[in-house]
Write a structure and sequence with these properties.
This protein is an alpha/beta fold. The protein is 41% helix and 17% strand. Helix 2 packs across helix 5.
Amino acid sequence: MEEFEALKQAFEQDQATVWREADGHPMKTLIVGLGNPILGDDGVGWRVVEAVEERLASPSRVDVTCLSVGGISLMEHLIGYDRVILVDAFSMDAPVGSISVLKLSQLPNYSAYHITSIHDTSLQKAMELGREMGAPLPEDVIIIGIATERIHEFSEDLSPPVEQVVPCVVNIVLDLLGEISMEEDERHGHPQG
């Protein structure tokens, strides 16, 4: 039992150091493209985020990444950020290429596509666990979902209806970033003109 307590204490000290370092940064925004770029429409999140990154000013106050993870692994990537925009392929009762913009709290079991083990959990549960352990996780998580059809066939190509909405989703992300930027400017006394 002593061994377990010592390991737990060492883990908590190590994590506290990482989390304190993250707390020292100004407001941070992360954009994540989720999916797998070699599984057809499942790669739409990556495609959108890569296009967004090309249009961001350099240097940017926004971090951009593409991931093929979910649950606890995804939660770990969100530590230290104030706001996160996730772009992902969705299986939904809507025409292929339909776009949904939701807050994480509006989804009952997000990240089910990206859970590869029965030992993992949804992003919501992972974030609850992370917060219980003291991780500084974003309160503001927006998910942009694109209705897809081909997510289990090997292909680097998107289906035509999904490919057609990529520019629209890029603009949605950029609009959301514009809103975030205006909020930060107003908070710091720099009104937009």
